[in-house]
Amino acid sequence: QVQLVESGGRLVQAGGSVRLSCAASTSTFSRLAMGWFRQAPGKEREFVAAISRNGDTTNYADSVKGRFTISRDNANNMVYLQMNSLKPEDTAVYYCAARFTVTVNYYSLVSQYNYWGQGTQVTVSS
What we know:
Helix content is 0%, strand content 49%. It is an all-beta fold. The strands form 2 sheets. Strands 2, 4, 5, 6, 9, 10 and 11 form a 7-stranded mixed sheet that branches. The chain has a 4-stranded antiparallel sheet with strand order 1-3-8-7, with no helix packed on it.
């Protein structure tokens, strides 16, 4: 079982930056592929960014490429999402997700993840 706890969400003005953190409670963090997803009111949960278990490969939604960066610290069971140049349309609840894998792939679909955090709210004002 893996527990994920997100933090760092807040109210920020357009053009600003926010760094989200996700702490994983597991002794096998390096076996987990990780991802960030978001869900705005009235919309489906959507992919934001993903990172492989060893951190060597990443993937981003087109809407955040060049603005967001996903990273991980396997020594401390943490994954991060650095969000720059924020836009009002980035407003959503952001979720951390994890899945065990034996490969070094990343995963970009909601259905590919087994473990989810409770979410953290990011609000971008115009």
